[in-house]
Design goal:
The complex is a heterodimer of chains A (about 60) and B (about 270). Chain A is an alpha+beta fold. Chain A contains two helices and four strands. The radius of gyration of chain A is 11 Å and the shape is globular. The model of chain A has no long low-confidence stretch (mean pLDDT about 95). With about 270 residues, chain B is of the alpha/beta class. Chain B has ten helices and ten strands. The chains are: A alpha+beta (about 60), B alpha/beta (about 270). Chains A and B meet through helix 1, helix 2 and strand 4 of A and helix 1 and helix 8 of B. The structure holds thiamine diphosphate, iron/sulfur cluster (3 copies) and magnesium ion. The site of one iron/sulfur cluster (SF4) has 12 residues of chain B, from helix 7. Magnesium ion binds next to helix 3 and strand 5 of chain B.
Chain lengths: ~60, ~270
Amino acid sequence: MEKKLPKIEIIEKYCKGCHICVEFCPTKVLEMRGFVVGVKNLEACIKCMQCELRCPDFAIKVSAE
Amino acid sequence: MSFDYDKYIRPGKLPHIWCPGCGHGIVMKGLIRAMDTLNLKKENTAIVSGIGCASRLPGYIDCCTLHTAHGRAAAFATGVKLAKPEMNVILCGGDGDGTAIGGNHFIHACRRNIDMTYIIMNNYIYGMTGGQFSPATPTGHKASTTPYGNPDPCFDIAKLAIGAGATFVARGTAFHANQIDKLIVEAIQHKGFSVVEILDDCPTTYGRRNKYKSVIEMMNRLKEVAVPVKAAEKMTAEQLQGKVLTGVLYKDETKPEYTAEYAKVIERAKASK
Ligand SMILES: Cc1ncc(C[n+]2csc(CCOP(=O)(O)OP(=O)(O)O)c2C)c(N)n1
Ligand code: SF4
Ligand code: SF4
Ligand code: SF4
Ligand SMILES: [Mg+2]
């Protein structure tokens, strides 16, 4: 069966590029692209929600489906 | 599941004014989750602040809010709570606002044990005005006004609150984001004056001066210094050197609450007529 990938939404106009989500993602899914964050490796996401929880700027949302 | 913060944010208010990596946003999210857990009604909840970066918080939240004078959140909030004891009253602000110019109001709100919750974001500095030292700036640390190191001993805000008579005192950090809402929930549920100190970061005016290379370094420091109260019980004084206790530090459910006592005064006054 095909693995269902989560959806990671980045609200670019809110992201201030602080790096927090990139650093504390346990599986290194995210990366900086200039001043905003981008998804580098969605396959590795374990939906732990750490990025969404820690982002000071309401700029990243993870949904399981 | 993604958490719907938008439900509590005033439309059109984001992005907020805080700098990249400033922990105030993390604290605000914790407060919003706590409000959601307790299902607080917007019309029945007041968030009151003084002045400072931290004190900008109420402006973003869709409920009854008051952005008052520097250090005076406790005074305005006391007025709100006495006029409407059925309201949930939450105060918030920074270490400067709460322990320097507002130190007096802070200790007396603790002493009265009035049923409100005070979230104090301690980033060890006056962030908004460019990094002057506050009563929470650790000895030896640098601020714009202490370029050669701060000679003052600093307050332990949680201990100050306990000493002054607050009946619920907890401490968390901006790194331990998951714990913030839980501490605030317990604080709001407690009947009496509750203080939640959140150790926070100000990369812009404190981090840079004190040789933190990045926000991440500041976050990792919060991670390293924090020791949950339970874990601390099994540690020696030596092991606890330089650590800060986190979790619920103090709780007293026996001390009379101020609005209840005040209602009795009103009854006595009426009866004496
Ligand atoms: C009566 C008065 N005095 C001084 C100021 C200047 N002032 C504005 S914010 C601030 C300090 C804020 O520090 P803190 O409460 O720690 O908040 P932070 O900005 O660090 O979040 C000061 C001194 C003022 N606004 N009003
Ligand atoms: S949900 Fe967890 S694993 Fe997925 S991107 Fe966010 S932090 Fe990384
Ligand atoms: S934590 Fe938020 S603001 Fe910081 S880089 Fe990630 S998405 Fe952007
Ligand atoms: S100056 Fe400091 S406290 Fe103020 S928003 Fe910037 S990082 Fe936060
Ligand atoms: Mg401060």
